[in-house]
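User: Hi! I'm working on a homework problem where we have to compare a predicted structure to a textbook description. Could you give me the structure for the chain below?
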Amino acid sequence: MSGWVDLHCHLLPGVDDGAKTLADSLEMARALIDLGFSTVAPSPHARPEYASAERVEARLGELRGALEREGLVLALGRNAENVLDDAFLRGLGTPAARMLGPGRYVLVELPYTTPVPPLLDILFRIRTKGVTPVLAHPERCLEFERKGRAAEAVRSGALLQLDVGALTGRYGGTAKKLARTWLEDGLYALGATDLHAPVGARDWVGRALTELRSRAGERAFERLMRDNPARLLAGEPLESEGD
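Assistant: Happy to help. Predicted structure tokens:
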């Protein structure tokens, strides 16, 4: 049976605030493989201050080659972590858009410390482009501290991505509480690592996955860490989305 699928991971070397070198990337890859991952869609930040889409594509190819040379079996997909701003919205539906896999889904992040009052309108605008937004680590974003906001986003057609480290308190008490509550409420569509560096990766990601499995149960764990992310990467609908 195939392993876990990570759709939020800063694995590519020298393109953003993630892996700094190819050696970092390979060490991170080894950790992920050891933890049970078989597929990663590296999600570099799509911001002007970081690498262009062309450079990211080149680094993706370089990393694929390096993994093969090292005998590391880890499939890589295309992805990016987009900022939910006007430039991103204007780019949707154009060649400039940096999508997840074939393009039915897009990974986006909200500001950590700034509210986003027009969130539901923005989500509607994304959906009118025929794209489903995948909201990165909502438990770490101020907007979702508003009671009921996460559920509203899900009802508006967004998918929520759990940062698994939040379950063990890696991002503080508020994120931990929200993540555990929303997991229990069934609001998350998938989990991911948001791994940025190799230091301690086996330890903290391993503990987070153990916590997720303990809290969610084996069937939900597999849905969050393998089945749903695999479908998103393939551009397929989730079972709850219908045909």
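For your comparison, note the following. Helices lie at 22-34, 53-70, 86-91, 119-127, 149-155, 173-185, 201-216, 218-234. The chain is about 40% helix and 15% strand. Good luck with the assignment!
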